[in-house]
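Please produce the structure of this protein holding magnesium ion.
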Amino acid sequence: MLDAKVSKLLNEQINKEFYSAYLYLMFANHFTDAGLIGFANWYTVQAQEERDHAMLFIKYMQNNEVPITLEALDKPVADTTSHLSVIKEGLKHEQFVTASIYGIYEAAQAAHDHRTVQMLDWFVKEQGEEETNATEQIRKYELFGHDAQGLYLLDKELGTRVYAPPSLVL
Ligand code: MG
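Below is the modeled complex.
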């Protein structure tokens, strides 16, 4: 069994990862409605990755015989007044998730739970990548999204993203 506080935070993280998947599906729907199928593809792949993150936390808890409680998911909330506002919500959300992962990390360190710290190292790195990707999305949209030709090419590029399973195996 793991430390009680660490276990509680891990359980909460499952919900946050599934919520992330839900949020990115909402983004994908926003772009599908706008006819930007490349953007929609990018966020659909992002949603699949978030589902994988949730499954990794579930697997880790199962491996350590920590009971799991699946809580209700909140309705996703984001500013969808423009394409750029949606994209910016992605970075804001990833920063929130990074803070959440750091919270578990610090609790695990305080409990001398080196196993959880080591597992979370992957997520710390992953969050760095998520924030970089989200920042890149904003920069690209700001640079190229304001005219039809730029938006067309950007949509085409984002349409090439393919889903890949996570590199962390538990
Ligand atoms: Mg995630």
